[in-house]
Design goal:
This protein has a single domain (9-146), classed as Rossmann fold (3-Layer(aba) Sandwich), CATH 3.40.50. The protein has a four-stranded parallel beta sheet, with helices on both faces. It has helices spanning 18-27, 50-58, 79-96, 114-131, 140-146; strands at residues 9-14, 37-42, 63-68, 104-108. It has five helices and four strands; from the N terminus they run βαβαβαβαα. The protein is an alpha/beta fold and 147 residues long.
Length: 147
């Protein structure tokens, strides 16, 4: 009997909406397995540098999820719009690195949407599980270290 692949998903959550939505899901005793989803709390999705996503993959994440306030509801007025602009560029960069676009997801979850958080995180886990482990091509850095 073989073990089923257990993906590692890093979730960047906006402090004001998505993190509160995840917290609401937890208070309702609806949890996403902590061993599968690692939550990183950020003040706003607009502060997420694309390098954070690339570094999460480099450090072993099989998928990355970014959840923020719904457009128009950002506590910092335009932060989620900034992330939305970066989203298309980030998808292209990930593709250039050979990372399937299904391994990265941007969505909007408000503080009152605990059930949506559970659904989106669960869908991400299942999508990444179906893709299997992320296998990044060897970089020049890893080749130098091996020598």
């Amino acid at each position: 009997m073989s073990e089923q692949f257990q993906p590692k998903v890093v979730a960047f959550l906006c402090n004001w909406c998505s993190y509160s939505g995840a917290d609401a899901a937890g208070r309702a005793q609806r949890k996403v397995p902590a061993e599968l989803v690692r939550i990183v709390r950020v003040m706003c999705t607009g502060r997420i540098d694309p390098q954070f996503v690339l570094e999460a993959f480099r450090q072993g994440a099989d998928g990355v999820l970014i959840l923020g306030c719904h457009p128009g509801d950002c506590h910092y007025k335009e932060g989620n719009y900034k992330m939305l602009k970066r989203h298309a560029i980030l998808e292209q960069v990930l593709s250039d690195f050979g990372i399937e676009k299904q391994r990265y997801c941007l969505d909007w979850v408000s503080a009152s949407e605990g059930e949506k958080f559970i659904r989106v995180a669960g869908e991400m886990i299942e999508t990444v599980r179906a893709l299997g482990p992320l296998r990044l091509p060897h970089t020049a850095e890893s080749k130098e270290t091996a020598v």
